[in-house]
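ugh ok so i messed up the first submission bc i forgot one of the chains. this is the corrected input, ALL of the components this time, i swear. 343 residues overall. if the numbers dont match what u have on ur side tell me asap before i send this to the collaborators (the ones from the other lab, u know who)
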Amino acid sequence: MQSGVAPVHSNAHAALLIAVIAGVTALLRFLPFLIFRARRGVPAFVTYLGDKLPCAIIGMLIIYCLRTVTFTAAANWAPSAIAVAAVVALHVWRRNTLLSIAGGTALYMVLVQLVF
Amino acid sequence: MCKKAFIKTLPVLAAYVVLGMGFGILMSNHGYGPGWSVLCSVFIFAGSMQYVTVDLLATAASPLTAALMTLMVNARHLFYGISMVPKYRRMGRAKPYLIFGLTDETYSLLCGEGEIPKDDKTAARYCLLVTAFDQLYWVAGTAAGAALGASVSFNAAGIEFSMTALFVTVFVEQWLAAKERRCALLGLFASLLCLLIFGQSRFLISAMLVIAAVLSAAYAKRGGARA
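and heres the new structure output, hopefully the right one now
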């Protein structure tokens, strides 16, 4: 990857995008507190979604991260497959979040830079 | 109090410095210097979304695309908020910042039963320290990564995998804790299916809808309130 490349697009557009992203993120975080301020309880269905959705979303985010993987050549899928397997194995073995993330990422970097 | 909060946040210190550096390096590689990276980490303060932000900046996405993407990626924060409404009721003046800084990791430190002290003043101070420590690690990691990324000698290709690794780690952690395994599989396979059908640029919304629909059906089938 190159370093120190000038942004292709205007600073004003970048600032606008960051403001939009920050605004929507804050809105999502504040909304439940604004909606449920007056009431005592939260509707049962919302509580149910609150319980179940986070686990499903993590699965979705993994797929999101791996969305660019294709199977046309080994270099397009093998580093991700090997590194994901390594993260799973490391985490089952030690259950140390930092070790799993650092180990898997280091392995992935070695694979994409030196092996494939 | 300060020491207790610091010790509690040590795992987050490690993860945020690594992930924050990854973000800073990625931003540098796309031509956005430390100022831009730190700006994101101060005002957006949402790990996975900031990685997506790099893509959005690099492709000069439209503000509407950015807003929709943020809605999709960060929708889970609605649910963190919902479960913290009762807990944050007594937080006084610290409350707005606590809500702003409710990341996945901060949520995981504070959502548990008995994690927050009983006394109101102590509770607000403790939550404020945990949230502020976490953001401090995130901003510091970002600044370090951005500074590092500007040096030509470091080849950072592949550092973006730290985000994938984080989610895989959370997934395995939930799986080993036997927490909502069927929901985890639902998220994984519904998203995979939608990816295969709709392609990488437009599968997220359909995946969210499928997941929400399946969960709604399961809720209705279980007779609502019991679930």
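quick check: The CA atoms of residues 104 and 115 of chain A lie 15 Å apart. that seems consistent at least. The longest helix of chain A spans residues 11-35.
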